[in-house]
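In line with agreed milestones, work has continued on tokenised descriptions of protein folds. One protein thus recorded appears below exactly as we store it:

>
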Amino acid sequence: MSDRPEMRGPGTRQRRTTITGSVKQQANGGKLHSGEKPPPCPGKKTDESGRRLNSNGKAIREPGQQHADKHNKPESPVDEINERLSCHVRQESLLSSASGFSNYRGILNWCVVMLVLSNARLFLENIIKYGILVDPIQVVSLFLKDPYSWPAACLIIASNVFILAALYTERRLAVGTVSETTGLILHIFNLTSLLIFPSATVLTVTSVTPVGGVLSLGVYTVLLLKLYSYQDTNRWCREIRQAKAKRLTRSYSCPSVAQFNGSAVHTNVSYPGNLTHRDMYYFVFAPTLCYQLNFPRSPRIRKRFLLRRLFEMLFFMQLLVGLIQQWMVPTIQNSMKPFQEMDFSRMVERLLKLAVPNHLIWLIFFYWFFHSSMNFVAELLQFGDREFYRDWWNSESVTYFWANWNIPVHKWCLRHFYKPMLKRGVNKLVAQSAVFMLSAFFHEYLVSIPLKMFRLWAFMGMMAQVPLAWFVGRFLNGIYGNAAVWMSLIIGQPVAVLMYVHDYYVTHYGT
């Protein structure tokens, strides 16, 4: 400590003291032994005990002095005995909600450890019972029955016809050689063909496997939503241009790119300058379903980030295939007999046994697709909007889950389906039910057609979300609502899986 007194304001000098043991060290170097009183401040009246006095000669009680006097007051023998004998105060148990305690990190860690140990036991039991079932060659056979025939890949390549048809239709509409009514008819025909052509091909071509059918129909479904958004957005641009608006009132996107010092400098474009092959195929490959003229773009490609996402894609893909072959397939095969005999107790037991690997695979698939794969594509294309999901795991209602676990689809439904219905005067509940019905249709479309059988299990499962959302929102809140959402995910999916597998087994292999 410096020997000089510290200045605390203009013309004011104060001395600070530090107490070390029985010696008080003053700021000016002087010492006060215990028992001595510090010198009174100049100009202040004090009594013998050092207390300040007012003009009437009465002691002034300093702030906090009352509390100090209370503690310095000598205790009576009865008070000392009571203090020694009492060891209880009024308080709540930690697990009671009234206690206000919220640090349960140790219990969460215990749950994770128990979950890992229980799943490790199940996995070890599976290996002991069935051996190693992982076979990469078998995975290849799921895509190709004939190594010289690739019908699913050819079907995906043929989708370029519909992409170019949408682009050329928009070009004709932009220059005015085609009327709005004719352009609308051409777009409806193109979008309808996107829905019918691949499904008819999968149903008629026998060499298309169920896995290849799911992949090709998934690609065509994504293209259908993208091209619908493409024609919708360009129609809005024509309406703005016809109204002689100088600036667009929406922020759209287009990849007009110029290279500068190794980083991409992106310039904005306006309609109809966006109607190019480069712009169209950038939107086709971009991880979004909603078209804009000027997308948010990242300044550069982060190579380390890209390599991490690529490693995750490869690793989790192998993990998914291994878990399906080793864990799910034997459980599903052992579930066929209870379903055929309608043994409900064993059916429930098999359902619960299937729920664990099914849910684990679903979680890994979510991370692989929505985080690793979509971030990989976005980084490669310098696509700036990386919000592919939100905190759906904290969902306390069914509607919150469906609005936050798949953001690209949610944005499309909100922009091109839900809000236009509200603008036309449709009731909000009816519009929400229509969104669920549209989602239910595409879920059934992606399952029934590749399996070449129609059972409507996926459609009914999605439509059951409407009354479930009403029930959870009305009667369950907080952690109870979150638990209900998790239960619907863990139990609902294996029910649909078992129903489809059972029907497929009966249809193709049963008597």
